[in-house]
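#onboarding

Welcome to the new folks! Below is a worked example of what a typical request in this channel looks like: someone posts a single protein sequence, and someone else replies with the predicted structure as tokens. Don't worry about understanding the tokens yet, we'll cover that in week two.

Example request:
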Amino acid sequence: GESVIAVLIHAMIYFLEKERVSVAAVLFGLAVHWRIYPVIYVPAIAVRLSHRDFLGFAVLSLSTFMVLVAFFYKLYGMEFLQCAYLHHSQRKDPQHNFSVYFFLVNGSADVTRFAFLPQLCLSTYLGLRSSGGWAPVFLLQTLAFVATNKVLT
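Example response:
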């Protein structure tokens, strides 16, 4: 699954660089449907596109995402939503020895409930403040997202 996401994000970067925002938006909607985490790239996309282009990007990528969700919900019902999106808010992960939260998690529901906040803040900050091309900014965001993840293996 990760290789599919890599191809979709690389293709999205290619079309963003070619200023084919509509194609990039559809690819982004598909990528977020496939795995939810590419949503971390939204701040970087928002500050690098013009207001009009970003609105079009947002509408088209959200529409792509929603059409796919509706299609698979029609096929599989609530089981699809549970497996694809909702399990993230309900799962209890065991400790992972490379995680920055290794000693803190140890059964504490409070830490695990809010562990995503540093991850979200750092990734968003890098997306808003980093300069350079699309690929280096997305790389920085991804590294921050992975390095501060409570499930790091």
